[in-house]
Amino acid sequence: MRGSLLPIATLLCAVLSSPARAQEPSPLVLEATIPLGAVKGRIDHLAVDVTRQRLFVAELGNDTVGVVDLKERRLFKTLTGFSEPQGVGYVSSTNEIFVANGGDGTVHILGGEDFSLRAQIRLGEDADNVRVAIDPARVLVGYGNGALAVVDPATRALVADLKLTGHPEGFQIVPGTSRVLINVPDSREVTIVDLKSGKPVSSWPLQEVHGNYPLAMAETADDFWIVTRTPARLILIDGISGVSTESLESCGDADDVFTDFRRHRVYVSCGSGFIDVWESRAGRYVKIGHRATRSGARTALFVPELDRLYLAMHASAGAPAAIWIFRPAPKLAGARDSRHLPIALSSKDYTEPLIFSTRSTNGNSRHNYAPLPAWPVWTWRIRRRHHRLRDRFADAGGR
Question: Which residues, 6 or more positions from 103, have their beta carbon under 8 angstroms from its beta carbon?
Fold first, then answer.
């Protein structure tokens, strides 16, 4: 009898060690849906006013901007008077909303409380993505066949107009620097420009991939993520050399990518009808989620202060336009306390300086981030130097 138990025990161990033995919980839990009313056509980018917990939705196909009350989880107001609004950004220092219109190439500046039109800037054509820098306060708008407009929100004046080789898609201001990383799919490259000099710093051509639309800063200092559409790949690029260090299969027709610093994750929202979730485990990224959504739902916004991912769903047969709210799992302690959460460094959001601390888990370096908007830029310089020294030490065989 004892001898017959050995095969059974061996079989039991094999079953328990199998990947299929226990289904991992979904990394994204659909928490709520908020109907946007009679909104038709495509929905583009999103922005957030964290203080008032309001989400702004660029309803391109409807020529409107939706204002969603995230606290009450209802549509608060629908703003009219736009021409194919594509990009939207919120500036907390002036409490104003910037809306980029692809139809007439204008940027509308609205009051954050009463939503009245306070100013209008004419850029040309195809005003698109909007980013907000904190120090100094600047609003960046990609537009036309290849240009990046820089606006001073305090004066509402255009202070620079940077020329590019093609229309800019996802772009991100490197925290603690004046550099901007810009995806330029027309020329199949990532361009780096300096806001202070107004000149390009370098340009990194992409090999064997194109359709590089979304871009986000990565966990490691200087590095960043891009997502390409042909083929569909999530690519990690070294921000110093421009060399690709990771290339992972992604969902198709991606338009947004976000880094969840506290969970060491990357979220990719795709028009193919999925959100991919990647997580850093033992020094490499593993896909832990392939969440079905709806075909064409490719624009999203991850808001770390609220610890939620918001996905824009256009109207389809039998289903109205809506915002789907996903809660990342597992839930983090104090997740709704903005004092202890990082500012989003994403392809469709704003940028703010971060301070960090490092701990080691099984020899793997991990970082905790928290917003410190009043701190000087040397915090990021220290962080970059830390990573470079750590990498050199590792290359030399150290632990």
Answer: 63, 82, 83, 84
- What is the span of the domain harbouring residue 361? 356-395
Q: Which among 61, 135, 133 is positioned nearest to 149, based on CA atoms?
A: 133
Tell me: do 226 and 367 sit in the same domain: no
Round to whole Å and give the CA distance between 26 and 291: 8
Specify whether 346 is located in the same domain as 380. Answer: no
* Number of independent structural domains in the chain: 2
In 3-state terms, what secondary structure has residue 306? coil
Contact present, 360 and 367 (Cβ < 8 Å): no
Q: What is the CA radius of gyration of the chain?
A: 22
Structural domain includes residue 126: yes
Per DSSP bridges, beta strands 244-249 and 254-260 are: unpaired
CATH of residue 119's domain is 2.130.10.10
Residue type, 273: G
Whether 33 maps to a domain, the answer reads yes
State the Cα–Cα distance between residues 381 and 378, nearest whole angstrom. 5
* Domain-embedded: residue 22: no
How many CB atoms lie under 10 A from the CB of residue 348? 29
pTM of structure: 0.81
- The secondary structure of residue 339, as a DSSP letter, is G
Query: Per-residue pLDDT tens for 176-217?
Result: 899 999 999 999 999 999 999 999 999 999 999 999 999 999
Q: Identify the burial level of 16 via C-beta atoms within 10 angstroms of its C-beta, where 0-12 means exposed, 13-18 middle and 19 or more buried.
A: exposed
Same domain, 44 and 139: yes
Query: For 242-263, how does the pLDDT look when each residue is reduced to its tens digit (9 = 90+)?
Result: 999 999 999 999 999 999 999 9
CA distance 45 to 182: 17
